[in-house]
C-alpha cells in the first residue's frame, strides 16, 4: 500500500525534536531513539539506490536543544529578538544537535551534510518565507543527504524568529517537488478523542475537536499546527511514530495521511 | 582622502585567515591579531552609526583552521570531494573559527551573527557561483552584522569544492552593491619587487611580474589571485595590512587600490 506523489523520487523526512532528544533534560540526545531512526534511514531504499543523486532530505526539530534557549530568550515563530547573543544561543544549540545527527548518520554510512537555515532562509514583513534551494538542491544532486533543522532566521521588522522543522519540510517539499513527505512524531499518528490513529485527514474542521481535546497530541509540540501546515501543502504527507521510519522510507503508508488536496 | 563607490553605505571587510590565525599551528587563533581587528571594527563608524540597518558585512578566511583540513582531504577551489566526512571536517573547522570570531565581536558590542556558505551557496558545472542573499540581506536589514567565512560548497560534478573568502567578498559586493570593499592581509598592501606598497592597480599585466617574483606577497596565500579577483569586481577595492582596519573603516584609503574599472 505504497503512496506516491508528484515530482521526482525525493523523500523529505522530518525527525521530531521530541523523538530524538530527551525533552525534559536540556541539550540531551535520546541515544536509543536517534540510533533507531539512523538505522532505519541507513537501511532504507532512499539511501541504497544506485542513482548518483540523493533521494532523501532530512529535517529535525529542536527538542531539548533549541526550544530551551528560544524559551529563555522569549523567541518564537512570531516573537522575535534583535539580541545577537540570543541568536547565537539558540542557533548554536541547534548546530550542536545537528552535528550529532549528522555524525551518527555518517557513521552509519549515510552521506549526511549539515545545512543551517539561518544562513539561507529569511521571512519578509508578512512572514512569508524566502527559502533559496541552491545549496540543498546542489548538495543533493552530488549525492549528499542535506540535514536541516528548526532554527532562528531573519524576519523583517522582528530581528530573528523561529522557523520550525515542519515549516522547512513544507517549504522544501513545495520548492523541490518532493514525491513523499513524512513527519516522525512521538505518537503513531494523529490521534482521535479515543487515542486511536486517524487514518486520513483532508480538512481541519473534521479533526479540530479531537486535536483540541486530546492531551496525548500535545507531547509532540503542537499536533494541530503540524496538521494545518501539512494540509496547506500541495501534496500528501504522513505523520507516524518512531517505529515506522523504516516502513515509511520503504514506501509503506504508516500513521495518518494528511492531504489537503490543493494541487497548484 | 576617502574613496566611495556606488550602492548604499555597505562596507564589506575581509579578515585574512593568516591575519587572525597562527598559520603554523593547526586550529589556533592569533588572539592579539583578532583582538586588534575586533577592536577596530567595534570602534568604527560602520558600527557606531544610528541607522537601524547594519552597514558592515565581515568575511574571514580559513588560516590554520580550514586550510589544514582542505589540504588533508585534497580539496581546493577546483578539486572536489564526494566524501561527507571530508565535508564536515573542513566545514566544522571553519565553523569553529567562525564561532570564535562571532563571539569576540559580540563581546565587543558588535551585533555579529554567523552565516555559513555551505548552507546557501553552490557552484554549477561551469563553476559559476549561485549566491542567494536572502539571509545576509535580511539579517543586515535587521541590524545584524553577518560574519561569513571561506568554506566548502556544493559544486556540480565535483561534490564540494572550496570557496575562498575573497570570492565571497566579490560575490556579495556585486549582489548587494557594496560602497566599499576592503581586504585585510598580513602585508600592508600589494608589494612591488622592492617590497614597497603599490598605490593602485588597474590591470593585471602591469603588476604580474612583481606578484610572480616577490616572496613577500605569498605569505597571505596568493596575492596574485586576490588581485585578479578584485580587478574583475565592478567596483574599487583595497588591500591593506592589519594595522589599517580602523583607518579603512573610518573612510581612509590605506594600502593598495584595486580598480579594474569595469562598471556594469
Automatic annotation (TrEMBL), chains A, B:
Class in the EC hierarchy, top level: transferase
Binding positions for ATP per the UniProt entry: 14-18, 63, 222, 226
The keyword Kinase is assigned to this record: yes
Catalytic activities: isopentenyl phosphate + ATP = isopentenyl diphosphate + ADP
GO molecular function, one term: ATP binding
Entry's Gene Ontology BP terms: terpenoid biosynthetic process
Binding site for substrate: 62, 67, 165
Entry keyword Magnesium: no
Pfam families: AA_kinase (PF00696)
Alphabetical keyword list: ATP-binding, Isoprene biosynthesis, Kinase, Nucleotide-binding, Transferase
Lineage top rank: taxon: Archaea
Entry GO CC: cytosol
Quaternary structure (record): Homodimer.
Name of this chain's protein: Isopentenyl phosphate kinase
The species this protein was found in: Halonotius aquaticus
